[in-house]
């Protein structure tokens, strides 16, 4: 890459990478107009409109849009939860999940709907809410 010196084996990978630098987003969602750098990004995004959740947890059956979300969720079925809330003692498998939980105690709701003013603790809840507008 002439911009950052990163190397790629395939020219197609370099082409996709260059979009990070030039801001090109050729894949547009027909539903809402949001644009993406890759076809896979658009495919993932479309699931937010359809409600499709193709990645299912083998333990509880809960569905997820991304495999990374499923992998994070799988940890909820584990015994060990090393990140403890100092306020209530509830344990979490990652520090990120603990930080989201702490918002319950602080009242922080950083995801605000510009259409109706309702606010949410989690971005996933906000994204579900946006479908009603």
Automatic annotation (TrEMBL):
One Pfam family linked to the record: zf-C2H2
Coiled-coil region: none
Signal peptide, first to last residue: none
Location of the C2H2-type domain: 1-26, 27-54, 55-82, 83-110, 111-133
Molecular function (Gene Ontology), one example: zinc ion binding
InterPro entries xrefs: Krueppel_C2H2_ZnFinger, Znf_C2H2_sf, Znf_C2H2_type
Superkingdom as given in the UniProt entry: Eukaryota
Keyword Zinc-finger annotated: yes
Electron transport as UniProt keyword: no
Protein name, entry field: ZN239 protein
Lineage, top ranks: Eukaryota, Metazoa, Chordata, Craniata, Vertebrata
Recorded name of the encoding gene: Znf239
């Amino acid at each position: 890459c002439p911009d950052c010196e990163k190397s790629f084996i395939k020219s197609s990978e370099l082409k996709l990478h260059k979009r990070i630098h030039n801001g090109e987003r050729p894949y547009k969602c027909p539903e809402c107009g949001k644009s993406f750098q890759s076809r896979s990004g658009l495919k993932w995004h479309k699931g937010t409109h359809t409600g499709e959740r193709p990645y299912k947890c083998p333990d509880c059956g809960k569905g997820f849009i991304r495999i990374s979300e499923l992998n994070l969720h799988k940890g909820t079925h584990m015994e060990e939860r090393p990140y403890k809330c100092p306020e209530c003692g509830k344990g979490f498998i990652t520090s990120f999940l603990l930080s989201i939980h702490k918002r319950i105690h602080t009242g922080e709701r950083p995801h605000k709907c510009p259409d109706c003013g309702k606010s949410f603790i989690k971005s996933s809840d906000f994204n579900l809410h946006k479908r009603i507008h």
